[in-house]
Write a structure and sequence with these properties.
Layout: E1 10-11, E2 18-21, E3 26-29, E4 40-42, E5 46-49, E6 55-60, E7 68-71, E8 87-95, E9 105-110, H1 113-128, H2 130-133, E10 137-150, E11 153-166, H3 170-173
Antiparallel strand pairs: 1-9, 2-3, 3-4, 5-8, 5-10, 6-7, 6-8, 8-9, 10-11
Length: about 220
């Protein structure tokens, strides 16, 4: 069963990110041991993917601003939409000392539907594998891309294969994913209607108050 229902963008938070550029069909990241802001391409994307701690939520990725997110309290259970421009997405950690200098850990997040579709399938395969029940994590390789053409042009979806399983790397336990950047205000419950007054004996007739216009007051 898919971890979320699909309802586009990619990016990261304050953790060093890895991203999939759906327009180009290529992976990019940055170093986490310098102030160099230049991205580099990850030509052979193979990494341990922490599907066990994947988080879903509402995300807003806009150029020139830090990402905003509201993480679901439980996987795939969407809370109230925090704003019109927010989209459903997810975030998770990757580990690859070869591809991600120097810590080996990167955070991945996306709202791109073509990408989420492939991760839904990957997550299903992870859950169905007996190794996941043993607490192991999959080593996943992006073996290629699939072009997807629509009225908006051509995007690319990654193709994944699980090539191995491994014990959970200790490095993943030392990194917390980005938390919600804002709270969704809970709507106050509507006040309960006042109960109808209990029947009472009819009072003796009395003059109507000035300006009341006569009739019952209730």
């Amino acid at each position: 069963m898919a971890f979320m229902q699909q309802t586009e963008g990619e990016g990261g938070g304050f953790n060093t990110y890895v991203k999939f550029n759906a327009k180009a069909g290529r992976w990019f990241s940055k170093r986490d041991d310098s102030t160099d802001t230049e991205e580099f391409e990850v030509a052979d994307m193979t990494a341990v993917m922490d599907l066990a701690r994947l988080q879903t939520g509402w995300f807003l990725f806009e150029a020139g601003t830090a990402p905003s997110r509201v993480i679901d309290e439980a996987l795939g259970q969407a809370g109230a939409k925090p704003g019109d421009r927010f989209k459903r997405g997810f975030q998770m950690l990757f580990f690859s000392p070869k591809n991600f200098p120097s810590s080996g850990v990167r955070e991945f997040s996306t709202t791109a539907q073509s990408v989420m579709r492939e991760f839904n399938d990957l997550h299903d395969k992870y859950l169905a594998a007996p190794e996941s029940q043993e607490g192991k994590l999959p080593v996943v390789r992006c073996s290629g891309t699939t072009p997807i053409t629509s009225k908006h042009g051509t995007n690319y979806a990654p193709q994944f294969e699980i090539v191995d399983w491994t014990d959970r790397p200790a490095e993943l336990d030392g990194v917390a994913m980005e938390a919600s950047t804002q709270q969704v205000a809970e709507s106050s419950p509507a006040p309960a209607p006042e109960p109808a007054p209990a029947p009472a004996p009819a009072p003796a007739p009395a003059p109507s108050p000035q300006g009341a216009g006569g009739g019952n007051l209730f």
